[in-house]
Amino acid sequence: MATRKKAEAAKPAKVSKAATLRDKDVAGLQTEIKELQKAHFGLRMQKATQQLSNTSTLRVTRRDIARAKTILAQKQEAQAAK
């Protein structure tokens, strides 16, 4: 049991999606949002044609889009405040 705890402690911390999005600039966030929207559209079409086996990916992409839009709005607000 002690070896398991040591192995888990040695793993690096997982970087969240929000942290990677915060590193991008405004233009990078806008392109990321467009890519996510295209991916979400493709998933919706797959669902409509009964080809999507894992429907939870729709929820994940929808939340990723919202996360990116939130960070984009925060960055734009910060730029406007300067």
Automatic annotation (TrEMBL):
The keyword NAD does not apply. The keyword Lipid metabolism does not apply. It holds the Pfam family Ribosomal_L29. One of its GO terms (cellular component) is ribosome. InterPro entries: Ribosomal_uL29, Ribosomal_uL29_CS, Ribosomal_uL29_sf. Belongs to the universal ribosomal protein uL29 family. This is Large ribosomal subunit protein uL29. It comes from Variovorax rhizosphaerae. The gene is rpmC.
